[in-house]
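Why this split exists: single-chain examples teach little about how molecules sit against one another. For that reason, every record in the complexes split bundles all components of an assembly together and asks for one structure covering all of them. Below is a record exactly as it appears in the raw files.
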Amino acid sequence: MTPNFAVISIQTPTWHTPRLWVPLFLFWIPIILLSPIIFLVLVVVAVGIHTNIWRLISLCWGILSGLPGTDVRVNAEGNRVLVRIL
Amino acid sequence: MNDNRRQILEMLATGKITADEAERLLAALESSPANPAGEQSGSVAGATVKTRAKYLRVLVEADDDLTGLKKGPTTVNVRVPMQLLRAGVRLASLIPAQAHNQLDEAFSRHGVPLTLSQIKPENLEELIDHLEDLTVDVDSRDTGATKVRVFCE
């Protein structure tokens, strides 16, 4: 499953952002529109590193679909950062 | 015969569990037929049917005495899906051979005797499986000022 939302929250002792829900699924629209260019870039990269283009695409897809469930919370010096990918 | 039933019978055959415990496990297995093979957990007399870990967790807690920052403790709580780790390890196979050598040298300079070229797709699953058994607990000597936990869940 590809990531659909990212939840981002940043708090410092002086200010804080509200918990932001970033709709990642909306990024699919520009990605689909730019897919020919992205494909060309991947072909160039695949030729550059002497690998199969389909293997490279499979790897990129694996990383993308592995992202949901990632949760990073850091609390230091009174600052708090939260990043969750759903 | 499904895998769970076979596993229980093998544990009984090897003497890891008694006949009564095997009977209880089989009864539990029959009462929950919806559970897929390999994703059950249970523990009888130290015999455990393993669950498959989904996430790698890293927890760090450090007191402000240790960090020198007098603004409260520092905590880091990271959860990484195992699927992402798998993809990351596969990514290592894309690194060119000449870069492998440079990376291996850099690793060994920093005391990590790791040879990237040995990480191949065929032993990738084995590597991840061993990672699922990983648990690292570090407590600082200074009355527990720092705690680091790395485990799979």
